[in-house]
Each structure stands twice: as C-alpha cells, then as structure tokens.
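Researcher: Structure prediction, please.
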Amino acid sequence: MIAPLLLWVTLSVEVARAADCAAPVTTIDLQRALEDAEAAYVALDDVALSVAGQTVQNGIPCLNEPISRTLAASIHRFVGLQSFLDRELDDAALAYAAARAIEPAYVLPLTLVPEGHPLRDVYASVDLGRDERVSVPEAKGRLTFDGREGDERPSTWPTIVQVFDEEGRVLSTTYLLPGAPMPDYALVEGRLSPPTFKLEFQTPPNRTLLLSAGGAAVAAGGLYALAAVSANRYHEVDPPDSNLDALRATTNGLTVATWGVGVAAATLGVGAFFVGQW
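Model: Predicted structure follows.
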C-alpha cells in the first residue's frame, strides 16, 4: 500500500534530507522510475509498484536538472494514481487536474485504465476553469512551476516548484500541495525585507500644525468642561425624570467629542514636531 498524498510528500522530503541527496537524480532516472511504476500497476505487482514509488518519492527532492513540462505532468499523474489506490479521491482529482492543466490533450491509455473504470471519472472531475494563481516573491535566481518559469504559483492544485541560482543550477525541487508554504529561497536584493518607516524630529516645528494642535487642545478643554457640568447635573439628587435621558445623551456625546478632539490635538502636535520618512 502506498502512503496517502500528504504523508507521501512529507516522507519524500524528509527522506531526501536524511540522505542529504548523496546521489543526484537525473530526469531520466525519474522518468524510468515512473515507467516502472506504471508497468507494475498494469501487472498488478504490488512489490514492484512499491519499489518504483519509493524511487520516485526519494528522487523528486534530489533532482539536479530542470524538470520538463511533460515530466511534471507524468509525476502528477503518478501521484493521482497512488492517491486513487489509497482512496484519497479528492487528492487524486487535484493531482490529475494539475496534470491536465499541463497536458490538456493527454488521454489515459486503455492498457492502464480500461473504459468504465472509476478512475476515469476522478481524472476528469475537476474543472480546469478553477485554475487560480498567486504571486510569490521574486527569486534572486529564478523559479519554475511545473517546468515553466515565472513568479505565479498554481494554488488550486499541486505544483512542482524548482529553485535555481543565478548560474542556472537547481537548488531544490519540491512537490507542493495547495496551501503549502513555498520552500526557502534567496530573494532579489533590496527586497529581503519590507521598507521601514521612521520619524525624524524637525526644527523649527511646523507652524500651521502647531497652531492647529493648540486650537484643538483648547476646544478639547472646553468640551471636557461642558461634559463635567452635564455629568454633575445628571448626578444631582432629584433631577426631573424627563431630563435623565437627555442629560445622559448630552454627557456621553460631550465625552466622546472630548476624546476625539483630544486625539486630534495630540496627532497634530506630534505632526508639528516630527516628520515621517520611508
């Protein structure tokens, strides 16, 4: 039994890390393993299928060559097949959708999947019109998704991302599930961190802002005094019942206004003495 998709992807990465990719894998090696897996499936040879599957799993993170679009589609179909065998039908459908998005004219061979087999329904179940992409930070070298260079990652279904250095060498190859984080890679210089904002003290202060701050402070003081008077009237021993709601509303309104004008005064005061720069 082959591991479910999520476990399979996780294990393939961890195995590659443990082995540290002592033996680099070529695209020819990977293609042969995929062909062996397909032949084992047709022959109903579970042992051979498991061996070939492990070879593919361990080989993807250790690829030392750029992956082609055709090979990427073959890998997605392999993941779809093994997910189907493990009854992970949603995962199988998404993997097959990734393959179909790359090679929409590909037809499943009858020798592999006979007419009427339920796998054919799963294969075509996802609408390719759902294809969505998200932008990723620009790499210092370059990125490819399923063998195509760019900075937009397929997000509806899995994708195979390769990271290259500035000389074109493959740094990593990762099978990414939808929603999985991108692998680590160096960003274009100058974009390693977002721009920072800083405040600088200015002398003399901005006269207009300073006068506005003073005016707002005086207004806030006046509103505070009115709010205090209204509050005292509200708390008198026996105010007429008909005035309670009106006094409460007046007091609350004056209090809110006091805070608003006070915040404006403080903001204008800071703006008078400090200037922000990116």
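Model: The beta strands are 133-135, 142-145, 148-149, 152-154, 159-164, 170-176, 198-201, 274-277.
Researcher: Thanks, that helps.
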